[in-house]
């Protein structure tokens, strides 16, 4: 729940109308509170920042001490008349023109010197985007960001290959917003008010119009109650009984009413006992839930929910009711009536959780109102959709013994000739080449053959250390990497900037699910791969 609240600002609703429909005013406020640092204004970095400035990032700083040279003219934010000028200053000026509400600045200090000698400089930032940073300072920066819970996003466009790496200890997502969120109607375990309402409706006394507009949850509750009365209080257990149950629903239809068709299709919702989703259960079982950090609203609320579930007078084994119901065939009054039942139950459950959260806060020495009732309601509304993403440190990724523990995955994935994982391995080999020779393979046109040979040596060492025994012929891949010469093609840089900015917005707003660790794009055949290192 970290970052759930943000400083109240006057959002330009007309300017940001479309995106407000995606992440709401709260998400927009978080964007406007964020301070993003771009290390090195490369084409990829500038494209990433552009896609954050346009939706209204509050503040950005470009840290880059390089002067503009011919190699920078692949960047749309660099013009020929700027040759020899500060790359940070020119890029910053043009980015600020895109949105006058974004507070942009630049710092012409050497980013590597800052990383090595003054890492505290980076504490001011919410997110750091690292481009073109060699391994040694990158690992130092990653360690610093990890220890200070600063989001680090490593991006790279290398020829036709794109690479993004997210680095942060953990990321809690309350509003994951899946395309098809599941219903939580509690039909197999109805709460008393819902069952009482269903019992109050006598289907036999309804006229044809009323009969054809009974909401399908009520129809299912009638049929499950009737089934239980016949079968000693048990719901259908096997395929034959479930088929018979479905047929009984259809028998109740007089003129192929739409509401009975909905009940027939949703029969399983009345038979499946309400369970806590695995993603939510994993959070409730986490050690941090038992002993939440005092600065984490997410974990404090998770503990409050767990206590609610375990209390027989409150949750009695169930999570708080989210309260949302799907569309269904019903009269306006009938729909409102059943909707109110669910909303009232959700309100009561949220109130219980809020009381428990307040007590937990007091036990941690925090103000009881540090978490508002609205925050509790949002948490409970999304209780079945909670997601917790834990990332792997960049240090582990550079630990050969750790990577060798992933050898079975590497070997299995590389059996697929279309897998983009091979390009991740090639990029790592190219970085190893850089560590040894101080440049990337192919950057000197007079040593292409030697670079292919040296790159293959670096690759062979890497494959051996990671325990990869794939039969792939790597010569063509080595030649391709050398042919790229670490160049940034603007189309690839633009695409990767779009993907990276999208992931950064997810991390800032705590909405939608980010990629797990690493994203690789293969521009040779327009495929991609997201995987956990």
Average pLDDT metric: 93
Q: Nearest-angstrom radius of gyration?
A: 28 Å
Q: How many domain units?
A: 4
- Output the CATH homologous superfamily of the largest domain: NAD(P)-binding Rossmann-like Domain
The residue fraction in helices comes out at: 40-55%
Strand proportion: 5-15%
Q: Characterize the biggest β-sheet.
A: 8 strands, mixed
Number of helices: 23
Compile the SSE list and pairings.
Elements: H1 17-33, E1 35-39, H2 43-53, E2 59-63, H3 87-96, E3 103-107, H4 111-117, E4 127-131, H5 135-147, E5 151-158, E6 161-167, E7 170-173, H6 192-199, H7 208-211, H8 216-230, H9 239-251, H10 258-265, H11 268-271, H12 278-285, H13 287-290, H14 297-310, H15 332-363, H16 373-381, E8 387-390, H17 394-397, H18 400-404, H19 407-414, H20 421-437, H21 448-466, H22 475-484, H23 490-509, E9 518-522, E10 527-531
Parallel strand pairs: 1-2, 1-4, 2-3, 4-5
Antiparallel strand pairs: 5-6, 6-9, 7-8, 9-10
């Amino acid at each position: 729940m970290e970052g759930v609240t943000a400083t109240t600002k006057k959002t330009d609703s007309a300017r940001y109308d479309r995106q407000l429909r995606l992440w709401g005013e709260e998400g927009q406020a978080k964007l406007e509170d964020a301070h993003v640092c771009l290390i090195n204004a490369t084409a990829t970095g500038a494209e990433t920042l552009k896609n954050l400035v346009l939706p209204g990032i509050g503040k950005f700083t470009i840290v880059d001490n390089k002067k503009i040279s011919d190699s920078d003219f692949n960047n749309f934010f660099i013009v020929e008349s700027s040759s020899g000028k500060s790359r940070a200053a020119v890029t910053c000026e043009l980015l600020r023109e895109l949105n006058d509400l974004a507070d942009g600045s630049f710092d012409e200090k050497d980013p590597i010197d800052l990383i090595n000698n003054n890492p505290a400089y980076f504490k001011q930032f919410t997110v750091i985007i690292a481009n073109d940073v060699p391994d040694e300072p990158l690992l130092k920066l990653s360690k610093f960001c990890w220890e200070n819970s600063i989001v680090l996003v490593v991006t790279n466009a290398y020829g036709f290959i794109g690479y993004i790496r997210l680095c942060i200890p953990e990321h809690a997502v309350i509003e994951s917003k899946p395309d098809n969120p599941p219903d939580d109607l509690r039909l197999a375990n109805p709460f008393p008010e819902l069952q009482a309402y269903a019992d109050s409706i006598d289907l036999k006394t309804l006229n044809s119009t009323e009969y054809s507009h009974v909401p399908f949850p009520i129809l299912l509750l009638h049929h499950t109650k009737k089934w239980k009365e016949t079968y000693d209080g048990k719901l259908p257990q096997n395929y034959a009984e479930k088929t018979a149950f479905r047929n009984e629903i259809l028998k109740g239809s007089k003129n192929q009413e739409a509401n009975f068709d909905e009940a027939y299709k949703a029969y399983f919702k009345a038979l499946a006992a309400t369970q806590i989703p695995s993603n939510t259960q994993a959070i409730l079982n986490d050690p941090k839930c038992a002993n939440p950090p005092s600065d984490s609203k997410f974990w404090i609320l998770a503990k409050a929910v767990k206590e609610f579930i375990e209390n027989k007078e409150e949750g009695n084994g169930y999570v708080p009711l989210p309260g949302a119901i799907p569309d269904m065939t019903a009269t306006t009054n009938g729909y409102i009536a059943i909707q109110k039942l669910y909303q009232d139950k959700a309100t009561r459950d949220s109130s219980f959780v809020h009381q428990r959260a307040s007590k937990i806060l007091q036990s941690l020495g925090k103000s009881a109102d540090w978490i508002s009732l609205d925050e509790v309601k949002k948490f409970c509304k999304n209780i079945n959709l909670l997601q917790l993403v834990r990332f792997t440190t960049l240090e582990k990724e550079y630990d050969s013994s750790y990577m060798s523990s992933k050898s079975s995955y590497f070997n299995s994935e590389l059996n697929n000739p279309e897998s983009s994982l091979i390009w991740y391995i090639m990029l790592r080999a190219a970085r190893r080449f850089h560590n040894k020779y101080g440049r990337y393979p192919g950057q000197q046109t007079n040593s292409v053959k030697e670079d292919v040979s040296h790159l293959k040596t670096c690759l062979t060492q890497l494959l051996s250390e990671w325990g990869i025994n794939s039969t792939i012929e790597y010569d063509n891949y080595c030649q391709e990497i050398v042919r790229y010469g670490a160049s940034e093609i603007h189309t690839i840089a633009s695409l990767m900037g779009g993907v990276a900015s999208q992931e950064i917005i997810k991390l800032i707003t705590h909405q939608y699910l980010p990629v797990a660790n690493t994203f690789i794009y293969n521009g040779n055949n327009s495929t991609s791969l997201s995987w956990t290192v």
